[in-house]
Amino acid sequence: MTTAEQRILATVDALADEIIDFSARLVSEPSTLGNEASALRVMEDELVRLGLPPERVPIDPAVLAEHPGFAPVPWSYQGRYNLVAARPADGQGGRSALFNGHLDVVSPAPVDFWETDPFTPVIRDGWLYGRGAGDMKGGVAAMSYALHAVERAGFGLRAPVTLEAVIEEECCGNGALACREAGYDADAVLIPEPFGPTLYTAQVGVLWFKVRMRGVSCHVQATAAGANAIEKSYPIIASLRRLEEAMNAEERPAAYRAIQHPLNLNIGIFNGGDWPSTVPAAAEFHGRLSFFPGTPYPEVCERIRAAVAEAAHSDPWLADNPPVVEFYGFRSEGHTLSRELPALATLNGCHRSLIGQDAETYISTCTTDLRAFHFFGKGVGTCYGPVAENIHGANERVNIDSILQVARAYALFLARWCHLAE
Ligand SMILES: [Zn+2]
């Protein structure tokens, strides 16, 4: 460790209270889908305060419609945007870096499963509690202050650094994609997703779909005269489960060989019916299915359609009234990369300087915004982030020391990757 690096790390430590305070202020803003405005305002104000004024980058479906990475969604992008602060280089000779984090969070419902209010940040026993604390507002605070700490310690950087706070990560990745298409990219991309201080080298593909069933409503005095759209979903879901098992049993990339059940189907939304004494005429469910890197998205769509059709064939009503399958939201393909690539090796070196040993490899069974950079940019990216628990569940929490550890590692990374200017 050089004396300059030590000075930067000491500055990160001196900023610890501000980093955690900023994390908590972000957690206070309930930035679920479509409600990100107040969190974006907190982020924008903070970046301005840190001397890193951001640009607002909208998501324009008209501009992105033809992009192979764009995921059509049924909701509007009117008035919604991402924030990107681009810090120019102070000289030459370094490699550029980009930190990306998302501000959108998933719903905390059902809220009565929480011990404290999900949007009232609570610090207890070294953990920060709240929806989004881990996924991933603590990481956003860490990455922002890592850059600030370098400047605060009195250094410039010999390559440009970009800070991105995006929306739409939890549903499709269109936020990160819009920033990529707006021209933001770098030699190295780091995302502090809460998988811990690891080198993230693989993620699966992920897609969303929905299936609509039609039935015939009637009074319960003669249910046989009707067709229960809710019950018609049972064989369809069972068929999709068989598809999931088949896909897990197939040939898989080496990175995934040691993982028990890497591909997961989730039925996450179910709507149908409105009266206990009426046979429901309509029902729909929404699902998420993952697939191995190397498998093209259209191929998985076809398999889902086939699984639904197969179930429909063996039911006389469904055979005559075929369920409708639609795809929206995530259509992200998976990827793998080597931890020996320069960006990852440099980050590992930073981790080793701080912790005394190599960072572990993380093989992910979900997706992240790395997709936008891996498939549509030049950047080599990885996730290295805080330690969190119960993300997407009740009582989400993030370990406070781990947020600071990310800030230290990122600050050190900037020094070694971008090179310091006095
Ligand atoms: Zn996340």
From TrEMBL:
Residues 202-314 form the Peptidase M20 dimerisation domain. It comes from the Bacteria. Its cofactor is Zn(2+); Co(2+). Keywords: Cobalt, Hydrolase, Metal-binding, Zinc. Belongs to the peptidase M20A family. This is Acetylornithine deacetylase.
